[in-house]
């Protein structure tokens, strides 16, 4: 082989080493990292805002249920036209007075067998269930950020490896051409090198397209375009065993806690519908002035009444409501069992995936080491005439495949680690210690749980909170 060709091969080896170093994790200590992706996703997620609003709606259901226990006072204005016709001793009398009434009416529930109280308690359980569902949504949002970040890193590293392959293939083509010029190889060897370079360029174009796709998903998931990334993230703290992970998830996973609160809510709903079969007592009062348009008469009067009602027959509707509530409760209990099984399965699968991904990474790293040694050896042997150009190109392809497998395995290990956190219910902004303003679900609830009237000071505080939420 000519000294010119040998020098180019040495240059290619140096270039390979330089680019390989550039794709190592943590290559940009100053760049965007996974924590930045988490923060962006948490602060900009429309899905989180949607479910926070749904939680506030559930908070208001508690206020509405509480209002049923309070007196209801209305100001009433009424204009009425009466018509009476009477016959006395064959004398027909007709009267068509027009009256105007204005006054206050009051209605106060005294007793309903606990129907209203049970409704309030059921609404409170739904609030607790919705809070846990919001946490589960938060986990989904943050895990999407994990996927988006890891995909960008993976595609960046893939582009670097494919770019390196293009450079090496170009050097191999130049070396083959030099050797052909001095009669060491045939035109077939040059054609093989040309084909290898064209293939490497095509794969580079595909990798760049995949990177653009990953960056678009990152913008959607995180809320901003990615800058230079800091490479693969460090692994989070993980459980020591599968049984430990399952035990923790069964106690703390938001999906399970949400289903448990839902079961309690429907238990209370059954009790509420049974209470609806019993009597209820209410106090009703009104006071006002009635004036007649037909003359100058007016009347000031007030009434108060204690009303007692006991359902006797309602066409079977009340009994059907009880049975429907029981069926709904049974469905929620079955759903709880399904959720518990799904969470257990999810933790087991995530734990196994992480173990498999870690083993795959170890094997891929060894594959890269061995492929690099083989490639260097075969290329050196080719300079001595003991190997063909095809042998070198095959070894180069094996090394490329090994490098791509390694970065893919490292990405899958990171993905599996954070998936295991999500399976346990640990992938939340609070547990991750993110530098964000954690959404407090109790703030709004505490403002509305006593059903403040519009003229109260608490209602004015609530208006300020609502305005702040709309600005955000």
What can be said about this structure in brief?
With 472 residues, the chain is α+β, with helices and mostly antiparallel strands. The protein has helices at residues 3-22, 34-44, 46-67, 115-181, 187-222, 242-252, 254-275, 317-383, 389-424, 429-432, 441-448, 457-471; strands at 72-81, 84-88, 91-95, 98-111, 280-292, 298-309.
| Average pLDDT figure | 87
Which structural class should the secondary elements be placed in? alpha+beta
Largest sheet: 4 strands, antiparallel
Q: What percent of residues are in strands?
A: 5-15%
- How many structural domains in the coordinates? 2
- SSE order, one letter for each helix or strand: HHHEEEEHHHHEEHHHHH
CATH architecture of the largest domain: Up-down Bundle
Number of helices: 12
**Helical content band:** 55-70%
Gyration radius over CA: 38 Å
Instruction: Report how far apart the termini are.
Output: 70 Å
Q: Strand tally, please?
A: 6
CATH topology of the largest domain: Outer membrane efflux proteins (OEP)
| Name of the CATH superfamily of the largest domain | Outer membrane efflux proteins (OEP)
Notable traits:
single chain, 472 residues, alpha+beta, Outer membrane efflux proteins (OEP), 2 domains, four-stranded antiparallel beta sheet, two-stranded antiparallel ribbon, 12 helices, disordered N terminus
